[in-house]
Specification:
By secondary structure, the protein is an all-alpha fold. Helix content is about 75%, strand content about 0%.
């Protein structure tokens, strides 16, 4: 695919696929990055074995349809129609270069670091289950991914992700099928599963007493988290900017809002089945290291699946890792090159732009792989830290984009003060209020950033220069009432399914 899609002529061809991509491959690509190798092994491990785990993992998905409504009625249509390659370019148009560079730097280094940790984690799984050396698995995953994403640009990334997503889903279905054979089918699952693992939705916890996964924080904090991730993170937003037209963009985001839950439900069902098998099979249970349920799926694949299927499922894990890495490389290159051009106030012709893009993509590929080699000393604590760091920044970042779209009075001075305040408050909550579930940080950061920005406007209004909007950009909505009803219905259906599962399996 890298060879087939190698002929690009412009930066839009390389970073946005020439804006010729339909909603179907884009949807699969986005989900392949989100439902990655870590999800393929960690979600079933959490559901099936982890202490305090179970189907509460499904509550992570509740806010996704609501976040799609928020994005499609606010940020994404404006970003798409503005014609930018880097979404942080839009922030510069509204608030100045400082705001753009601040968020751009945060994105580049945090995303490269997080992806390096993910590649390391997958490599450790392959090393422990198949005897593949750590450096060999990193090289296999990294070099091949760098080559095809470097040559083929966004089209190779998207179509590669689409194929990888199909492999992952098929692999999960195979795990469910063979797992059921070992425990005696659905009846065996019903009779042997631990009842406490069947609770998917928890209305009793509000996330303020040290408990997580309560309904309110997962919904309200989740709306902010997912809206910020899908609309204000370059790796995801770049896929949206690659759509053929606003209608394809809408269909892609709606499909993501509707299909993520069924796929996650497959992961969770696999976890229930294989976790139940582990609890009733001493040999299997003893093969899983204590306090490391993430090894459950890889050990099950290697020891309890037929030959041929084993190879396919190991490919599924590799494919999931590659999908995350390829999108990261392309997005990092897009943001870095656009920033460099801005800093130097320099416009490159198409030939030199594409040449520079591939050099920068190679640079970020190497950086990410190097971080993978050195992740071993920090992985046990950093994986948790990365998840929390995301929630420190997601709320303030979404606030910036919302204010950029809705209020033309604000300038860079006010929103930078607001951004800094939102991040500082979230850091305080992290360090001094451990009883507050970290999903709430997303909502707190959003409101603090917006509030402080408007308070700052009262004291600095005389220093501002009114923003002159580009009236040529179409601001008409792309989401109609029917679409909103569909997404809201999906949200209600998720709650209904979550509440019904304990009755179905008891």
């Amino acid at each position: 695919m890298g060879y087939f899609f190698r002929r690009q002529k412009t930066k839009s061809d390389y970073f946005l696929g020439g804006r010729s991509l339909g909603w179907k491959p884009l949807t699969l690509s986005v989900m392949a990055t989100q439902l990655s190798a870590i999800s393929f092994v960690s979600a079933p491990g959490f559901v099936g074995l982890r202490e305090g785990g179970g189907l509460k993992w499904l509550s992570y998905e509740l806010a996704v349809p609501l976040a799609m409504i928020l994005l499609l009625t606010t940020v994404l249509p404006i970003l798409y129609r503005s014609g930018v390659v880097s979404i942080y370019d839009y922030l510069e148009q509204r608030f100045g270069r400082t705001s753009r560079l601040l968020l751009s730097v945060i994105f580049q280094f945090s995303r490269a670091f997080a992806t390096g940790i993910m590649i390391y984690a997958v490599s450790m799984i392959l090393q422990s289950t198949m005897g593949v050396e750590l450096w060999q698995s990193i090289v296999i995953i990294g070099v091949i991914t760098v080559i095809y994403s470097l040559e083929g640009g966004m089209k190779a990334v998207v179509y590669g992700d689409a194929i990888q997503m199909i492999i992952i889903v098929f692999g999960t279905i195979l795990c469910i099928y063979f797992g059921l054979q070992y425990i005696g089918g659905i009846q065996g699952l019903v009779s042997q599963v631990e009842p406490e693992r069947l609770q998917a939705i928890n209305f009793s916890s509000v996330g303020t007493n040290g408990e997580g996964f309560g309904f309110l924080p997962m919904v309200f904090g989740g709306i902010v988290l997912y809206a910020s991730y899908y609309g204000c993170d370059q790796t995801q937003a770049q896929r949206a900017l690659s759509a053929q037209n606003p209608q394809q963009l809408k269909q892609m985001m709606m499909a993501n809002g509707l299909l993520r839950f069924p796929i996650t439900l497959l992961y969770c069902f696999a976890g229930l089945i294989i976790g139940t098998f582990a609890k009733t099979n001493i040999e299997f249970m003893n093969a899983i290291p204590d306090a490391n349920p993430d090894w459950m799926i890889p050990i099950f694949i290697i020891n309890y699946m037929p030959h041929g299927i084993i190879g396919l499922l190991v490919v599924a894990i590799l494919a999931a890792a590659m999908s995350s890495l390829s999108s990261t490389i392309n997005s990092l290159a897009a943001v870095t090159l656009e920033d460099i051009c801005r800093l130097k106030d320099k416009k490159l012709d198409d030939k030199n732009y594409l040449k520079s893009a591939k050099y920068i993509a190679l640079f970020w590929g190497v950086v990410t792989l190097v971080l993978s080699f050195y992740a071993g000393d920090i992985a046990p604590t950093v994986i948790e830290a990365i998840n929390k760091i995301g929630s420190v920044f997601y709320g303030p970042i979404l606030a910036l984009f919302l204010m950029a779209v809705f209020d033309k009075r604000l300038t860079g001075l006010q929103i930078n003060i607001g951004l800094l305040s939102g991040v500082i408050v979230n850091l305080y909550l992290w360090l001094d209020v451990p009883s507050l579930f970290w999903f709430w940080w997303n909502l707190v950061g959003l409101f603090v950033t917006i509030s402080v920005s408007y308070i700052s406007l009262l004291f600095t209004s005389k220093q501002r220069t009114p923003y002159q909007p580009d009236n040529s950009v179409n601001t008409s909505p792309i989401l109609n009432t029917k679409d909103i009803v569909i997404l809201m219905s999906a949200f209600v259906a998720m709650i209904a399914i979550g509440l019904a599962i304990p009755n179905w399996l008891s």
